[in-house]
Protein: Methylated-DNA--protein-cysteine methyltransferase
Organism: Simiduia agarivorans
Amino acid sequence: MGELWIQANERGITAVSFDALPIQTSAPTSDSAEAHLAQAMAELTDYFTGQRQAFTVPLAARGTAFQTQVWTALYQLPFGVTASYRDIARAIGNEKAVRAVGAANGRNPIAIIVPCHRVIGTNGTLTGYAGGLARKQWLLAHEGVGQRPLL
């Protein structure tokens, strides 16, 4: 999977990204940010070792109201379950916003914890992923999705 960059503020995790330079290069400025980072690292380790299927670390992503609504719907997708962009649009009560859901999904700053990797095409195909399709495929296989139909 490569390295993950995790960032936090006093409210929670603000970013988890793959192989990228940190969005902010300064160290956390509060004890609570340090605690959120430690919790995220522990929970991600548990996820990758097969001991965790859901995350409890507080999140503090910044985005538009619409993006936040999409990210909240993504966060509610259970481990090992996929959904299409249309499914997410329906879940937020805006069935015509499929393309906007795709754009918000692509701007998700908190990879893995907010599981945008669980979103696939309506026809069951893997679609774009900021971490790359190989990572998306690995994450889905890790969750038991790869050996059965995705829908």
Q: What stands out?
A: Residues 147-151 have pLDDT under 50 and may be disordered. Residues 5-49 form one domain. Strands lie at 4-8, 13-18, 83-84, 119-120. The first strand starts at residue 4 and ends at 8.
